[in-house]
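Example record

One chain of 446 residues, shown exactly as stored in the release files.
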Amino acid sequence: MKQQIQLSDHFTYGRLIRFTLPSIGMMIFMSIYSVVDGFFVSNFAGKTPFAAINLIFPLLMILSTVGFMFGTGGSAIVAKTFGEGNKEKANKYFSLFVYISFALGIILAVLAFIFIRPIAILFGAKGQMLDNAILYARILLIALPFNILQLMFQTFFVTAEKPQHGLAVTVSSGVTNMLLDALLVIFLPQKYKLAGAAVATAMSQIVGGGIPLIYFGRKNNSILRLGKTNFDFSAIIKASINGSSEFMSNVSMSVVGILYNIQLLKYAGEDGIAAYGVMMYVSMIFAAAFIGYSIGTAPIFGYHDGAKNYTELRGLLRKSLVMIGTFGFSMVIAAQLLAVPLSHIFVGYDKSLMELTVSGFRIFALSFILMGYAIFGSGFFTALNDGVTSAIISFLRTLVFQIAAVMLLPLIIGIDGIWFSIVVAEFMAVVFSALFIIIKRNKYHY
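Predicted structure tokens for this chain:
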């Protein structure tokens, strides 16, 4: 039986891969079951419901980012507190962040449920697409507090030195979604298929957030457990600042997604939104590997920063840069080879939509070799409790560079400019991430 890997260990390439693999698998699997959701809706409910989901999905992502924020920002505080040797205080922080996240989830869900119609209209929805978007969103909003917890616990399972448990929960959630999709979308009458897909996703989120809540709420063999805590406003603010990069990243991506949809409606109509939806689903899988790696390594960086093990910190950074470059190059090759079969899975029933999707995806996929470094750069500074630097990188990457590119490039080269905009934005983000890593190296001794 292999000895459990601990945050205090020395990490070789092999040990680093073993420790982060569950987090990578967790994020990839979560992305895959989101893709399966899109597959069922596109092929069985139709093109308009599929476009409606893609139109309203950015809003749902914005609301769920509370989980990412307190997961990444809070785990950095918890991991550093463990590194400083204060286990009791670390668990109080953990409990505080979980309770606050769940409460915020309830508040956000109620507000969004009330105002979803004017929001969907603002996004450009009308007619059947408007009705579909409202229906899908309202069903998912019921499960929003659990979705927030699910995203939050992904990081805290790693901090608890139980990344394999996080993977098991994600698989359980994903299997729930897939099975219910197959049952509800395929076999329900046509007018209920979209609602069936929404119910399937909502139930999977309840599973994904509920199981960890029960696990950490009872006695367990991890280093974390939910219990009594004190309201610590300064800790909440610090976690929010630490996780602001992930919050900003997800909110910005969602805002940019809305802008992409507006531009695509202008240049390609409903087909453009459907094609972009396919790219987003597939790119989620590739980006998930990088996000999972960042989640997996963040508590390690946080622990060794707290313990002042700077030699280990430098070694981890060097190994991470090598591994991310290798992953990114492999992903670009895979994406080029799989562009046609992946597009066919979603929109093979429509020849013109299929051609638009394939051509756009081949351009879009070039960003994967850059994406990993940009994601890791932001996550690296979050792990070091430098939320400001992390937020700057995320803000520039996901908002400033992408908005500038998606507004300007289509004016020059038409619809291809929309696909190239992500490549340009990721390149600029990598440049700035590298600059910050160089500038901050003396402060953090890496």
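Notes: The first helix runs from residue 13 to 45.
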